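cron nightly-structures :: item 1 of 1
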Amino acid sequence: ALIEPYYFSYYTANSYYGLTTQMPFTLFIATPKKKPKVEWQSVAFQFVTLSERKFFGYRIERAFDAEVYMAEPEKAIVDSFDKPRYAGGVEQLARITWRCLARVDAAKLVDYSVRMGSQSLVQRLGFVIDYLSNEGLVQPLSADLKSKLLKSVGNAPIYLDSKRAKTGLFSKDWRVIDNVPRDQLLSEIEIR
């Protein structure tokens, strides 16, 4: 009733699918329309404007005592890597990837990532998957899927977290400057 078309994503969808233990106080709604934040019955609704080409990958789910449009798990992850601030930051991205990679369709995850048309999204996602794989926390992507992601990496290097210090180790494959200390990047993962 607040806006059409829409789907819940980011922190909200990640919480719905059990990819984060954080329960957001704000519900995040993706929409191709611009709309300011709304509070209704003590719930905050944050509208995240997406371009038409990024507005895909959702389905009807039963949540909040109603049938609503919710991002598919793969799209929730892709949206989160596209706009990390709406998903809890880079530490939450690492946790989400750790929790979901074995449970989602990896081919769909890669396809959706490339379809978004964002080189920094692909760079961040590929780097985090490789990082967690090197730590033994997730299985690596197949060679075909990794190659598909690598073909969408941009020439410009990006920082893993744009809000942190501008120093760090450079990943040549992903063109990512890792400016997040290991203990912080893995801080949301329950290592057993």
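cron nightly-structures :: done
The chain has a mean pLDDT of 92.
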